[in-house]
Inverse folding.
């Protein structure tokens, strides 16, 4: 205790002493005085304690709070000093403080302060403690929001269009750009203007609308595409699907790395018979709209004869037309000052050079070639044509009219002189698209019209360099045609066209171009098939289905520019497997991806009808791509959400003999866990895991399911491939979407066993077997009972009892064969094998360029001609 306080105590003691004279005896007084004079501390302390006791007693008795007491002025208190009657009860009421002397007041003040300090301390402790209180957390978050908003964050007054989104991201989950985890509160502003364009593709309309690759849609197209037919529901679904927050693995081709614009060596080597389709057609296809099976053979023969005639018939060339002496390096792909300007002024969405993500090539060189003066020297008329009529220069919304095309054509004629190549861009083509068998919706038409120039409604594909490459060519030339591609190799020949591997000149980007001769199609009445394929391709946006980058008509040749799959098809891949059949995990992978593709198609109202390994191509990343839609049936579909009660209704269909302990088949191999069904029960861990899986599957089954199966689809056409034909097609009873589940069963069977189940010595026998013969499984190779059960469920002859006929893919996905499969992430899983580029005969662009040899494709009446330059 310090001297000051000691002094105070003494003063107070003295006062206290005086005041207490009346209440105590004189002997006490004398004793106290004596003690005080002697400075006896003990007695003084006793005294003080005494007083404190009195205060406590008083406070507790009268119910006065410390703060109330502290609120009284000590001076006031001292003025009202009265002798403290210890223990004397006082009535409550005003004037209670009157009995409090100075010391008491000071004590009260001290206590009050101490309690305040303690309270403050408690508060500060609680905010700093690891167990942060809710209030503290909110306060901290609020502060950080305020800081961000007023600091680097966007202004709140940016306009009404500015929307501030605050994401309460779990602190542990927030990733920074480098992939590191950052605990933070993210605040993001989404504008309908440029800000959203900078942001990564998101589930917002603004982001989609402002996709950097977008180009304005010509007025004409918009008006023509406003016809919305019966496929409205379908289109909405397509849009939904398109906006799923998915990041598809972008493809990249290794090999081709030498850039472009090479002057072609003049030669006249004919390639018609040299370039052979790498894939032998194993299964003849049926497409005649007849219910008689006798036409089957005929159709097949007709297809073969066409292919044969193509290969054998000597080429009758129009010398003028095939002498393609395009100076590709500078003149043939004529560029214009206006185009150049448009690329370098604000009108172009991309000022920076277009980089092909796949091959990492840049279009800078092409842009450099396209300097204004150079361009002018090449072709003044082209300059005029493009700049005046295309409207790309400076105009945000070019109006493409037929004049455009004719001007461009004139220019082409001037540049190419001897070439009669007439190119109609997809813009002119789009108006015809509505004349087809099926009405296309607004979004489909719009998509088609921008498909050649940007990624359109595919924000998740904005990083695909191929869109940029095509967009670049369109910006430069205002039109896209066959002349902008180097045809490198013939990939295959189908009923309605021939597919080429092609390189977009100046980009090192590879595409597969399906070239169809319109005259031929018209004569053979195959135009509707081509139209169907085109329309379906335009709708698609799925990782296991082809992307249509552009479409155009060039010299009466209809061309579809699609994604190129370098891995060949599953038929070829199966032949390479040991025993010519896939191991079960590989088969499971491929059929699962095909199932997702079919599910998507059905949701769009497309019954595929031609499933077979030949139509499943392998992408460079090893994942699949389902192609060939000319035999597909389009119909309406009404998506429904089925609740759990109804989904549980079919355990009978999903019999899954291995799901429980009842499986007695000796060689049964579980597909997912690779544990035989009769695996020892004394393995508690395995049993537990299995039970967990079953429980999980049951839980998933109990969730509501989106079912978009076109159950009302009906067709009487006799279409498909013999070995894959569903019984109802053969019987001519009319068929619907269930035919795809039949073919899916045959497909799985073929992958696992290396052959189809009903194949006969000839087509008639095959068809008879399909209808009459019961399903049998060979003894080898060993296939799990889950797989066999699935096949059994799919190859039910009556379509109404077939697995998938009611709820489509959702039903099939739940089969135990797919237990443990992560459907959502299957496209991210490592595929069974990656394409071997050397083995597949893939030649890099560089090697072609070294030789300076390209194909030229030309239609002369019935046949396409190819010439190697
Ligand atoms: N995107 C592609 N990438 C690589 N190769 C392809 C691609 N598209 C088609 N092909 C190859 O070209 C061949 C011909 O394809 P196309 O679809 O024209 O004929 P098809 O499959 O025989 O069917 P159809 O007779 O109905 O036209 C295919 O078998 C395939 O090998």
């Amino acid at each position: 205790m310090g001297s000051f306080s000691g002094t105070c105590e003494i003063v107070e003691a003295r006062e206290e002493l005086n005041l207490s004279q009346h209440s105590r005896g004189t002997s006490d007084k004398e004793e106290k005085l004596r003690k005080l004079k002697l400075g006896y501390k003990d007695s003084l302390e006793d005294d003080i304690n005494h007083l404190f006791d009195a205060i406590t007693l008083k406070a507790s008795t009268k119910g006065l709070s410390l703060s109330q007491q502290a609120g009284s002025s000590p001076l006031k208190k001292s003025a009202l000093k009265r002798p403290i009657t210890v223990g004397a009860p006082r009535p409550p009421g005003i004037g209670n403080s009157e009995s409090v002397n100075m010391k008491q007041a000071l004590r009260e003040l001290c206590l009050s302060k101490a309690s305040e300090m303690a309270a403050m301390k408690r508060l500060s402790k609680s905010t700093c403690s690891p167990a942060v209180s809710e209030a503290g957390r909110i306060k901290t978050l609020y502060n950080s929001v305020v800081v961000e908003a007023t600091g680097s964050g966007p202004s709140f007054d940016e306009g009404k269009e500015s929307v501030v989104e605050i994401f309460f991201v779990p602190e542990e989950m927030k990733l920074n750009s480098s992939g590191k985890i950052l605990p933070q509160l993210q605040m993001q502003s989404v504008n309908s203007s440029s800000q959203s364009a900078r942001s990564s593709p998101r589930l917002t309309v603004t982001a989609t609308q402002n996709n950097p690759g977008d180009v304005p849609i010509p007025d004409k197209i918009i008006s023509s595409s406003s016809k919305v037919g019966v496929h409205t529901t379908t289109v909405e679904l397509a849009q939904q699907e398109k906006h799923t927050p998915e990041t598809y693995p972008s493809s990249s081709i290794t090999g081709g790395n030498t850039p472009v614009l090479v002057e072609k060596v003049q030669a006249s080597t004919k390639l018609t018979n040299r370039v052979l389709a790498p894939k032998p057609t194993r299964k003849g296809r049926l497409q005649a709209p007849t219910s008689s099976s006798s036409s089957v053979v005929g159709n097949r023969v007709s297809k073969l004869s066409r292919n044969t005639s193509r290969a054998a018939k000597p080429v009758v060339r129009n010398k003028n037309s095939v002498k393609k002496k395009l100076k590709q390096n500078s003149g043939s792909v004529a560029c214009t000052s206006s185009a150049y300007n448009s690329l370098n002024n604000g009108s172009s969405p991309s000022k920076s050079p277009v980089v092909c993500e796949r091959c990492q090539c840049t279009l800078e060189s092409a842009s450099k070639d396209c300097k204004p003066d150079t361009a002018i020297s090449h072709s003044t008329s082209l300059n005029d044509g493009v700049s005046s009529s295309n409207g790309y220069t400076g105009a945000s919304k070019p109006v493409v009219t037929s004049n455009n095309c004719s001007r461009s054509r004139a220019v082409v004629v001037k540049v190419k002189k001897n070439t009669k190549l007439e190119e109609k861009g997809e813009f002119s083509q789009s108006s015809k698209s509505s004349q087809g068998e099926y009405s296309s919706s607004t979004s489909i038409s719009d998509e088609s019209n921008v498909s050649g120039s940007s990624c359109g409604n595919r924000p998740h594909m904005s990083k695909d360099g191929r869109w940029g490459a095509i967009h670049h060519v369109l910006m430069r030339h205002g039109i896209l045609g066959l002349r902008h591609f180097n045809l490198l190799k013939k990939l295959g020949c189908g009923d309605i066209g021939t597919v080429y591997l092609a390189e977009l000149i100046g980009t090192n980007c590879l595409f597969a171009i399906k070239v169809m001769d319109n005259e031929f199609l018209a004569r053979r009445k195959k135009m509707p098939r081509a139209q169907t394929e085109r329309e379906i391709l335009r709708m698609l946006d799925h990782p296991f289905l082809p992307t249509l980058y552009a479409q155009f008509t060039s010299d009466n040749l209809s061309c579809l520019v699609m994604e190129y799959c370098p891995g060949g098809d599953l038929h070829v891949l199966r032949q390479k497997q040991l025993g010519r059949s896939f191991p079960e995990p590989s088969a499971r992978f491929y059929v699962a991806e095909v199932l997702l593709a079919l599910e998507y198609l059905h949701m769009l109202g497309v019954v595929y009808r031609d499933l077979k390994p030949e139509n499943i191509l392998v992408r460079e990343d090893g994942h699949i791509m389902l192609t060939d839609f000319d035999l597909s049936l389009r119909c309406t579909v009404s998506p429904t959400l089925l609740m759990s009660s109804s989904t549980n209704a079919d355990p009978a269909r999903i019999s899954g003999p291995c799901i429980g302990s009842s499986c007695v088949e000796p060689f049964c191999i579980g597909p997912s866990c690779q544990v035989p069904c009769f695996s020892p029960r004394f393995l508690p861990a395995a049993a537990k895991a299995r039970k967990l899986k079953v429980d999980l599957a049951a839980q998933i089954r109990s969730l509501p399911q989106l079912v978009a199966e076109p159950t009302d689809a009906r067709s009487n056409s006799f279409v498909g491939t013999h070995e894959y034909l569903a019984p109802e097609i053969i019987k001519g009873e009319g068929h619907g979407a269930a035919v795809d589940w039949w073919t899916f069963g045959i497909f799985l069977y073929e992958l696992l066993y290396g052959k189809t189940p009903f194949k006969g010595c000839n087509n008639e026998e095959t068809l008879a077997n399909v209808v009459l013969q019961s399903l049998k499984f060979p003894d080898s190779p060993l296939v799990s009972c889950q797989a066999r059960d699935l096949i059994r469920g799919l190859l039910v002859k009556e379509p109404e009892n077939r697995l998938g006929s009611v709820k489509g893919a959702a039903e099939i996905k739940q089969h135990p064969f797919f237990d443990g499969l992560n459907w959502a992430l299957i496209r991210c899983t490592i595929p069974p094998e990656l394409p071997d580029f050397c083995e597949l005969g893939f030649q890099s662009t560089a090697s072609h360029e070294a030789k300076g040899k390209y194909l030229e494709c030309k239609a002369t009446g019935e046949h396409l001609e190819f010439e190697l330059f």
